[in-house]
Amino acid sequence: MKKEGQTIGEVLRQRGISRRSFLKFCATTASIMALPPTMAPVIAATLEKTKRPSVIWLSFQECTGCAESLTRSHSATIEDLIFNVISLDYQHTLQACAGHFAEHIREEVIAEHDGEFILIVDGSIPLKDGGVYSTIAGMTNEQILKQTAAHAAAVVSVGTCAAYGGIPKADPNPTGAVSVADIIKDKPIINVPGCPPIPVVITGVLVQYLTFGLPELDDLGRPKAFYGHSIHDRCYRRPFYDKGLFAETFDDEGAKKGWCLYKLGCKGPTTFNACATTKWNDGTSFPIESGHPCLGCSEPDFWDAGSFYKSLSTPTGNIAEKAIYAAGAGLLAGAAIGAVHRTKKQAAVRQHRRATIDDLGEGS
Amino acid sequence: MTDVELLLWVRGPAFDIATVILCAGMVIRFMEIFMLGRKANLAEARGSEMAGGLGTVFRRTLVDTGTFKRTPFTVVAGWLFHIGLFVIIFLFVPHILVFEGATGLSWPGLPSNIVDAFAVITIVTLLAILIHRWRDPVLRLLSEFNDYLVWLVTFTPVLTGWLAFHRVGAAPAALIAVHILSVELLMVLFPFTKLSHAFTLWVARWYNGAIAGYKGVKS
Amino acid sequence: MEKVESISVTIQKRMTPRCASPDEATSVTPTGNLIPLLHEIRHALERWLREGHSHVIDLHSLPMSPDEQRQLLDLLGEGEVSASLSALGNSEVIETAFAGVWRVTHYNDDDVLVGHFIEICQAPDILKSHPDDGRLALKQLDDLLSSVETTA
Amino acid sequence: MNGPSFERGYNTLKEQIDAPVAAFFSSCVHCGMCAEACLFYTETGDPKYTPIHKLEPLRKVWKQEYTFWGKLGKALGISKALSDEDLSDWETLVYDSCTLCGRCSMVCPVGNDLAYMIRKLREGMAISGHAPPGLIGATKRAVTIGSPMGVKFPALQAQIRHAEAETGLTLPVDKAEADYMLLLSSMEVMNFPEFIGAVAKIFAQAELNWTISSEAFEATNSGIQIGVSDIAAELVQRIVDAAENLGVKNVISPECGHAYMAIRWEGPNLIGRPYNFKVIHILELLEQLHKEGRLKLKDKDVRRLTYHDPCQIGRRGGVLEQPRNLLNAVAANFVEMPDTAGMNWCCGAGGGVSANERADELRIRAFKRKKAQLDAVQPDALVSACANCRIQLEEGLEEYHTDIPVVSLTETIVEHLDGLGSKEGHPS
Asked: For residue B104, what is the DSSP state?
């Protein structure tokens, strides 16, 4: 299972992957990372000489969508190459073995590659009630995570659940779900959020890590290379936003003409992801291109950030109702205060003593 | 508190609170004004109070040429930032959505790059106005804490809004949250400061015009 | 290079009626990136001739409307060289009508476009044979020869 | 109990504040534009003359008595209560440097009627003992003698006789059931007596049934200038009584600014009831007669004439088009000054400033604004319709060595009246 000591280049050659294929892979990966195309040869040269890393993939409270995203949504082509670049030694869904044997492999990798392997996590970790809501082989997710992460070189949190808690953490968060970063504090963590994340972004992050080491992260722990721009910034419908042309409903003229979906609740302006450039389903399209506003799935708490179909800058409460009640209350309070003032003024009028020239002081 | 939690709070409870304070406060202000009453005028009228009042409500938006020549900065800067605020508040699409959400009324907005230009003009004008307030002897004499506070709470939403639009300085959710928060501060302070002139000035102008109109004078 | 400049004027004329057409429901407003891109190509070509530096432009990260992309291809045209590669899916390497300006297009196994580059160079790297591969080939050829000679 | 006191003044201010005042103070944004509308500021450059600043004592009372937050601030000790010292500090601002001309009220972008508020503030100032001695003296004379300048009826009688001798007409005194009762200002009686004869000539030509009351001929009202409504009411009541006793249909307000304000606009409100007669300004009457063809002119004045609107007649009184109609009828070469009619600059002596000797120097300084206006049009003569304005204009022009004759509009008309011999020379 393990190809101890082999470089990625050696592995690729062994598997009959030509140098041109590899160059092509590097060129497209650099393109996804928005790196200058001239970096492709550098990536190629570095990867060639890099030792093929061992990877443990842990799945916790998740829907397997992230793994599906990576393995199934694209046919086994360029993205598949990542499985040649890495040695995926443990992954529930993909590995052939099961039960004690599978767990044994995990322990073996930890022992053999202590401090060198990459830990990929998808799914959030339940902490409530001692973490009983998700256990594997009698261990809680938290225990497995802590035990494994302690020996990892770095952790990659794939998917919004692992990165920020995601849907399990959504209100009312029945399992007390938390993100990887909430538990692991002493290892570098790269968040690759998205529900699911874009497949090529997952592979891109791994390539980036292998080539350049720990990537530059934004304040939410995401690699800037992939999450550096908002959907809005890169959206092909942006010109309509700038011109003030908006679809008002899903089937009006504006929608048919492909106008901006901001009014339909698009979270593009506050969502950082590569959807608008990388797109989905073999580069076919992305939600906005299909006519649906961005849900903001790569952002923390996206499930609870108000309605998917309400613009993100609008108040969530019933403002008109509150305004009417407030005005009513103001009317009553104002009448009371006004009455006090009125009484005071009337008292002043009553106190008025008719003024005569004797009340003026000395004249000249 | 994460950015999104903050954003949800400012869009939810905080906006409710600000709305309640703004509405109740302004109604109280108006009640305080109107309940002081006004004596009926016993002199024989030469003109109409209503016509004079309404006329001045509109006419006073413009200034006579002589005064304009004497105080061009105040007039031009005042116009610029008021128009700027109007465009920003009422013609920027995300803002129209707020009004639509509250009232159900909607109207077409302007392209965002035009609103952006107005925002820049407004920001520059407001800064110039602040400097003018410091330097002009009359304004220095008149100005009190209230004036600077009002300037600040007017300037902040424009600046934070502009930053949020360009997504400069922080995460967009945080920028929007801070922007909405600054608007809420404006709303909360509205009834208690001279910001309330936005509502009371129509009453003031009407009274001015009515007093003059009764005597047959256009004021 | 006056040729490119003069063409660019005609493009704008052609662009306007196309994008203004209300029937084109899917038409997207032009980004205005076409002309600057042509200038970039021109400068890169000039630099390559002067200093020998090759240059790669990643069209993927450059926002352009479908119309503009079509126009770009039309304008660059096709030259004498056209190569196709079979490596993790197909790839096309085409010299444009402008010598030294190449279009490199990558597809995956499903023939979905995954990369689109313009390279300004003598020949794109991906076309060239790698010395390591050459060394391997030499060895294989030697083996072949020896086996052929042995058989003979 | 009697005599001025701060408490009485404060109480009066509480009485004076009404909805417009509250709306005005609520709306002020401290833009400072009113300063540029005030001749005391423009001619001195001293920011303390900014109109809204002059109203600070009234604003304090409004805020601390009639706003919830102001009351709270006062209760918590954040804002200081109004003191007698404040009123004392503001005395010169409220009286010496404000003519109640109301030009600021025309300029304020939020629509504050600042003159309306100064008028109210003076009520509190006067009764707390912070009125200028000059105005106090004038008010006392008005009440005790019947005229601020101390003019009694015999003095007027002498002028009437003089006018009768000059014109050959009989001037009716105390004529019951007359259509018109003419009021005069003591300034006209003392300084411009020719006005009486001029009016008599016009009325004779128009065959007007008119009279002068020996009981109440004085039109001026120091009460509204000093700001004591009780006294102002007493002075108005004298005219009302005389007019109603004689049973006249109309009372004519003469060429005096504040007199018109007092009798026409403030009067019914001061005495608390509408009149049984109409009040008409002499210029309104003349224009009406001219329109009706009862005022025939033999020729036109060829001099370059310009018109100075007395503030209380024009901007604050509403008689703006009549003088212009008359001037266009009588003058071949009538020109308007820049900033005219509703936006005219005050002469600098109205609102009791001329009666306040303490303000003399400032008053002459403020006249520079009028001087600049005149320099812009360079008239041969300056026409006005207020005796008080005329004195200030003459004094000011002399001070600044400018030789422009100042004439009354009524007298200008008389000079060109058809059918009756005109007086020799120009009045000066």
From this structure: S
C-alpha–C-alpha distance, residues D352 and B88, integer Å:
48
**Which residue of chain C comes nearest to A74, CA vs CA?**
C110
Name every chain B residue with its beta carbon within 8 A of the beta carbon of D24: 204, 207-208
Q: Residues C59, C63, C64, CA angle at the centre, nearest 5°?
A: 85
A chain contacts of residue D12, beta-carbon cutoff 8 Å: 348, 352
Q: Which two tokens stand for residue B29?
A: 């202000």
Q: What is the DSSP string of D10-22?
A: HHHHHHH--HHHH
Contact state of C115 with A17 under an 8 Å Cβ cutoff: no
Q: What is the CATH number of domain B3-23+46-214?
A: 1.20.950.20
Q: Calculate the CA B26 to chain-centre distance.
A: 13
Please give the DSSP secondary-structure letter assigned to residue D421.
Answer: P
- Cβ C95 vs Cβ C73: under 8 Å: no
In angstroms, the CA A128 to CA A321 distance is: 38
pLDDT digits (tens, 9 = 90+) for B38-61: 999 999 999 999 999 999 999 999
Indicate the pTM of the whole model: 0.82
Question: What architecture is domain D136-289?
Answer: 3-Layer(aba) Sandwich (3.40)
Domain that holds residue A266: 231-304
Chain center to CA of B109: 19
Q: Cβ(D355)–Cβ(D138) under 8 Å?
A: yes
The C-alpha atoms of residue A172 and residue A175 are separated, in whole angstroms, by 9
8 A C-beta contact, residue C108 and residue C88? yes
CB-side exposure of B121: number of CA atoms within 13 Å?
A: 19
Closest CA to B182 of B155, B147, B145: B155
User: Could you read off the pLDDT of B99-152 as tens digits, one per residue?
Assistant: 988 888 989 999 988 999 999 999 999 999 999 999 999 999 999 999 999 999
Could you give the dihedral angle defined by the CA atoms of residues D188, D190, D191 and D192, in that order, rounded to the nearest 10 degrees? 40
CA distance C87 to chain A (A): 5
ipTM beyond cut 0.95: no
Of the candidates B34, B42, B140, the beta carbon closest to that of D268 is on: B42
> SS3 for chain C, per residue?
CHHHHHHHHHHHHHHHHHHHCCCCCCCCCCCCCHHHHHHHHHHHHHHHHHHCCCEEEEHHHCCCCHHHHHHHHHHHCCCCCEEEEECCCEEEEEECCCCCEEEEEEECCCCCEEEEEEEECCCCHHHCCCHHHHHHHHHHHHHHHHHHHHHC
pLDDT digits (tens, 9 = 90+) for D145-188: 988 888 889 999 999 999 999 999 999 999 999 999 999 998 88
Rounded distance between C-alpha atoms, residue C116 and residue C57, angstroms: 9
Distance separating alpha carbons of residues C71 and A9, to the nearest angstrom: 40
Domain ranges of chain B: 3-23+46-214
Residue D106 to residue B64, Cβ atoms within 8 A: yes
| CA separation for the pair D258, D236 (Å, rounded) | 12
- Chain D residues in contact with B209 by the CB 8 A cut-off are 111
AA identity, residue C123: A
Q: Which of A280, A304, A328 is the last residue of a domain?
A: A304
Residues 6-25 of D with CB under 8 A from A: 8, 11-12, 14-15, 17
Domain boundary among A180, A202, A227: A227
CA B11 to chain CA centroid, nearest Å: 21
Contacts of B4 in chain A (CB under 8 A): 299-302, 304-305
Q: Does D277 touch chain B (CB under 8 A)?
A: no
How many whole angstroms separate alpha carbon A185 and alpha carbon B181?
32
